[in-house]
Amino acid sequence: MPSFKWLRKKVLRKKKRGSRNKDLLPLLPADRPSILTPSTSSENLVSFDNYGLFQRLPYEIRRSILIEAFGGRTLHMDLEFNHPLVRKSGTQTEISHCDLDSNLIRDTDIRKGWQWFGCVCHRREDGHCGSLFRSLFGTREGELIPKGRPWEDTCWRGIPNPSECGLLRGKDGPSKCFIGIIGWLLACRQAYADGIDVLFATNTFHLKSPDLLEHLQRMVLPQRLRAIPFLEMCWLNKYSRSQLRVLWDDPTTEDSELHALCRMVPQAFPNVLRLDITIICDIRPTGDDFPDITWATRRVRARTLKLSALAMEHSIFGPIERMLRTLGPGREFSITISMCAWEILADKHRVLYGSELKIEWYCSGIEGRFWKVLDPVNELGYWICCGDNQEMRMRYLDCGMGQGAENVRNAEIQEAAQIVEDAQIATDAESAENAQNAA
Ligand SMILES: [Zn+2]
Ligand SMILES: [Zn+2]
After folding, report:
1. Ligand lying nearest the CA atom of residue 207
2. What is the pLDDT of residues 339-396, one digit of tens each?
3. For the purposes of burial, counting CB atoms within 10 Å of the CB of 333, is it exposed (0-12), middle (13-18) or buried (19 or more)?
């Protein structure tokens, strides 16, 4: 009998080579050979020998200078399994964020490995390249204009922000896309202690790598994470939609990627003051109870929307709200979900609370955010914000070519189903009336 063992082995070996090797994740060592930052009790013992004239300045002034140099920005902290980025020699011909895809490119000749990447976030405040609706419809007079929201970020694609990115290499001055703190941190122990504090305690961190989020507490020292006051995170990328299935199949489960993230945040970031989380994937439930309602009748649509809202509130917002309650009041929380899911929840809240609902509209009344109260006594609550509309984006990119005939057919089927449903409702109402009259 022919043996396919060799083929199996070959396939497995290939799979292993191509897959992300979690064994090699850049985790913190179990023992730290030496502690670089002084503890409060030993602060006065630290030598200023190499700190030069800078040591003569009072602490507050030193800190203000360091914040100007390395703080007060939004920073990307990223980890991915990929080929390393290398700098090309030669003159740069075009500006891109961090020189990505121009002078900073992936070297596919070098094996893939875990690559750290960090830079200043240069997303545009005007939402350019972000919301499809903002670029299509703009904003109405007097309407709030949301500043570049985390889900509108295009830094990772290297798309430049003309007013921030630069300079062209070869001209004077360092690239503004990096803070360039490493040299300072390596200068001396006190420079490290002051610099590392400013780095973590005065910047907003933007985290989106699922591997980094999963292993964050084993990769970054706990005191650094505890120092972070402002945080943006993107959770559950587009491939997570199938993983959410576990929540729809078993609403009592606490064993999901979302639950793990919700448990991690209060442990890792107990001092966070501003927390902005975007859930990238579509969180609308799937399964037999949640059919596609694009061409459904009114009754089926209403029932599906009601069940969808309940399921999302329980399975998605349940763990999120437990996380926010654990963190407690006195902070700013925003949770952004995709537009299709947001519309369902926003409609439900508008019906429930009417004019009492605190709601803001953007982009000619298409996008917005509303406030959900968790505890009216201590003003604990959070914004539920409208995010991207991936479906519309895909359709817009496809231009809906070839859909015309199918749409007409679907509309005809829907109309016929609606007539049957209306007739059924009328019959039911008549039977109920007759039964009442007979009683
Ligand atoms: Zn960015
Ligand atoms: Zn830039």
Report:
1. 1
2. 999 999 999 999 999 999 999 998 888 889 999 999 999 999 999 999 988 777 766 6
3. buried
Which ligand lies nearest the alpha carbon of 73? Answer: 1
* pLDDT 10s digits, 92-126: 677 889 888 888 889 999 999 999 999 999 998 87
Nearest to 336 by CA among 396, 275, 391, 290: 275
Q: Report the separation in Å between the CA atom of 15 and the middle of ligand 1, taken as the mean of its atom positions.
A: 32
Cα(104)–Cα(87) distance, integer angstroms: 5
DSSP state of 238: G
Ligand nearest to the CA of 102: 2
Distance CA 297, CA 422 (A): 9
Q: DSSP 3-state assignment of 414?
A: helix
Measured between its terminal Cα atoms, the distance across the chain in Å is 80
User: For residue 27, what are its two tokens?
Assistant: 């985790």
The pLDDT of residue 87 is above 60: yes
CB atoms within 10 A of CB 119: 22
Q: How far is the CA of 100 from the centre of ligand 2 (A)?
A: 9
Q: Are 313 and 285 in contact (CB under 8 A)?
A: no
Cα of 123 to ligand 2 centre, how many Å?
8
CB 384 within 8 A of CB 370: yes
Q: Which ligand is nearest to the CA of 175?
A: 2
